[in-house]
Amino acid sequence: xxxxxxxxxxxxxxxxxxxxxxxxxxxxxxxxxxxxxxxxxxxxxxxxxxxxxxxxxxxxxxxxxxxxxxxxxxxxxxxxxxxxxxxxxxxxxxxxxxxxxxxxxxxxxxxxxxxxxxxxxxxxxxxxxxxxxxxxxxxxxxxxxxxxxxxxxxxxxxxxxxxxxxxxxxxxxxxxxxxxxxxxxxxxxxxxxxxxxxxxxxxxxxxxxxxxxxxxxxxxxxxxxxxxxxxxxxxxxxxxxxxxxxxxxxxxxxxx
Length: 256
Description:
By secondary structure, the protein is α+β, with helices and mostly antiparallel strands. Helices cover about 30% and strands about 25% of the residues. It has 7 helices and 11 strands. The strands form 2 sheets. Strands 6-7-8-9-10-11 form a 6-stranded mixed sheet, sandwiched between helices. Strands 1-2-3-4-5 form a 5-stranded antiparallel sheet. Helix 5 (about 200-215) runs parallel beside helix 6 (about 230-235). Residues about 20-25 and about 95-115 have low confidence and may be disordered.
C-alpha cells in the first residue's frame, strides 16, 4: 500500500511547517511511498468531529498544507478520505494546485461594455460598474471573482484565483506585503441576486476552511447581503473574518 501509517515521531521528522492548521490533537499520521505527501487526522475537542490535512513537500524541504476536510463524523471517515485524496494525487504522478492567471484578451472599447459580454477586467470595466452597480447581477460568478481579484490588486494585494472546480472557502488567494511581513488572505465570492442573502451555512464553511488553513484573514464578498444569522456567526471570528456586501462593493468601485 502506497499510503502507509507512520508514528508521530516519523511524521515530525519529515519537517512539518507548523504555521499551518495544527491546533487540535492529532490521532494518526501517514506518508506516501510514491510522492512527497504526508497527512494527519485529528479530532476537534469542542465539536467532537474529525478532520484531516494532507501536506506536500515544497522546494525548501518543508511539508506544508495541500488539502484537507473538516466536520467529518468519524476517525475512519477522516482516514479514508485522506487515503482517497492522496491516492488520487499519486495517480496523476505529480502534486499541483492550479491557480487562475489572467488572460491577455483585448477588452472592447468603453462604450461597448455591457455586463453580459465582458471578456477581461480593466479600469474601464470597473468605471462601468461604478456607474451601473446593478449590472453586477448580470455577470457570471467567475467574472465576479475576476473583478474582485482585480480590485484587490489595485489595493496592493497580490491576488490569484483558484480553480473553478475546487472546494469552497477560497475563490481568491491574496497576499499583502508590509514592512512586518506577508499576510495571507482568503476571499470567497458569492455573486447572488439582491434578494438572495448569504446564509449562515456559507459563513460556517468559510470559518471551517479558515480554521484548517490558518490564513491571517478570510473575507466573504457578495453582490447581495448577509442574513442576521450569518452576521452573528461571523462575529464569533472577530477580526479574522470580514463580510463585504453590495454596499461595500459600491464603495470599492468609487475609487475608479
